[in-house]
Amino acid sequence: MWKSPSSSSLNISFFIIHLFQLVSIMNQHVVIVSSQPLYTNSRWIVKSTTGQRVKLACVNWVSHMDVMLAEGLNQQPVDAISKAIINMGFNCVRLTWPLFLFTNDSLGSITVRQSFKNLGLFSSIVGLQANNPSIVDLSVLDAYKAVVASLAKNNVMIILDNHISKPGWCCSRFDGNGFFGDEYFDPHLWIQGLRIVATTFKATTNVVGMSLRNELRGPLQNVDDWYRYMQKGAEAVHAANPDVLIILSGLSFDKDLSFLQQRPVNLTFSGKLVFEIHRYGFTDGDTWSAENANQACGEVLNDMVSKGAFVLEQGYPLFVSEFGVDQRGTNVNDNRYFNCFLGLAAELDFDWALWTLVGSYYWRDGIVGLNEYYGVLDWNWLHIRNSSFLQRISSIRTPFQGPGYTETHPHKVIFHPMTGLCVQRTSLLQPLELGPCSEAEAWGYAPAKTLTVVGTYFCLKADKLGQPVKLSMICSDDSSRWDIISDSKMHLSSKLQDATSVCLDVDPNNVIVTQACKCLSTNDTTCDPGSQWFKIIDSTRVTKITKSFLQIKPIIHFLARNFFGSYI
Ligand SMILES: *[C@@H]1O[C@H](CO)[C@@H](O)[C@H](O)[C@H]1NC(C)=O
Ligand SMILES: *[C@@H]1O[C@H](CO)[C@@H](O)[C@H](O)[C@H]1NC(C)=O
Ligand SMILES: *[C@@H]1O[C@H](CO)[C@@H](O)[C@H](O)[C@H]1NC(C)=O
Ligand SMILES: *[C@@H]1O[C@H](CO)[C@@H](O)[C@H](O)[C@H]1NC(C)=O
């Protein structure tokens, strides 16, 4: 597609514009089509053919409820939903399934229509008939296959997630579906079900992974049985289909994989194993709103890393297969959690699946058409619930690093989770501001804690309270030293000339300024430091275009600086 320019009259500005267009196209329309197996290379999920990283940017689609049908098919045609998933920027779906759908013939063989009739959901049948006439009279089992086929046809990758045994909302400690040996959780039936599902979808190459069981939990949970049965389940899936990633969930509602630090999983195959964890605001109760937000963030991130994300260091991919927020933006607990969570997601560059696609459920908690405020689609499954939320998570959609993405030397980008944007420099004379991470400025973060624009002598410098930060060539004073402070380790702090401590912040125009540091005292529980939370993250991506310009013409910067003052 991209033809290298051959004209000798090519000038630099043409080159810059063209490259800019190319990069924005690459970054805005990344749809990773996968019709080939994926495997793992250390902590990365990669394509079998090229070895290039594929970052799973999935959304959860609920299909394990009482009706045993993927949600939303009364509202929109299945293909329209599949297309919407791609158009919203996801490349993958974690599609849930209840075990008994595949192991109990009398359940799997009833028609969709009958399943809805049994629950008295007559108005849903009208919607199903109108939107999905080819599905409404299929068996629920064939309807599941039809949904998988639609996703595959529309180039969506699929992770099949065994969410529960008995169809219904998940999960509680005492619902009989929590751990091997519970009322509805016979390990042998579960292994049989895994084998059936792996075999059924063996020919569907878009099915790239299977997560073997969601959120293990409850009074029976124990580490020995986890190894015993998870290893058996993994071997069963691998024997039936050696081309799917095998994804294992932790204990305590998929919060805890810490036992892997002492004892590795022992399997006969390699290059296929991925671990998953879940984290929501409510995972930690009301910690986020009741405690100081910096403290809460520090505690939760420590917990996430020590109980889950450490697997990256062990050389396994981490799939954070559930996270999400009330997208109305009114839940303080959720909002603080998400500012913190998104920083870690960018820093660790892990694979993920957002909860949830679902705009509304056929029937949940006894309510017909329950609105799902965590859903990216609105109640009618037609409109996006909150486009600014989608925009924000688009920052973690494309890889910052990994095989096939080492386009430049390792450098840093400065990420701002509250907006999902990165620090960028639009022109020589403008102050630094926030912009898409695909156009982020590349920084070095030196041991002396200076933040230097890569390829130049310019460093970031605090100037005045409430005023834009500057770029300067005098980089040895306290105003150009940036410490990472607070319990959250997400404030970047420096000093003004008069020794006042300040923190990097963002003004209403998205300009990067310094302000008094917020919420540092742990007894301060009402304030929200979100605007001052940044993450310095590793990247090897080609980002800001003027960077090449800068490297070609450092002299222009020098001149500009001397003629136009100290902005640059
Ligand atoms: C299969 O499901 C039906 C309907 O819920 C139930 O009555 C039956 O006991 C189940 N069979 C098995 C073997 O679990
Ligand atoms: C791993 O499993 C194999 C059999 O599947 C067994 O022979 C071997 O001893 C096990 N290794 C460890 C370290 O448990
Ligand atoms: C979208 O979310 C933001 C906060 O993330 C909130 O301020 C805004 O009101 C939300 N918009 C809608 C339409 O709910
Ligand atoms: C918070 O703690 C500081 C000392 O760490 C104390 O000076 C201050 O009075 C406390 N504020 C409140 C509201 O308790």
TrEMBL record:
Q: Which UniProt keywords apply?
A: Glycosidase, Hydrolase, Signal
According to the record, the signal peptide region is: 1-35
Q: Which Pfam families match?
A: Cellulase
Q: Which InterPro entries match?
A: GH, Glyco_hydro_5, Ricin_B-like_lectins
**Keyword Cytoplasm appears in the UniProt entry:** no
Q: Which domain of life is it from?
A: Eukaryota
Fetch the SUPFAM superfamilies from UniProt: (Trans)glycosidases, Ricin B-like lectins
Instruction: Respond yes or no to whether keyword Hydrolase is given for this record.
Output: yes
Using the record's annotation, list all stretches that form the Glycoside hydrolase family domain.
74-357
Return the similarity comment. Answer: Belongs to the glycosyl hydrolase 5 (cellulase A) family.
The name on file for this protein is: Glycoside hydrolase family 5 domain-containing protein
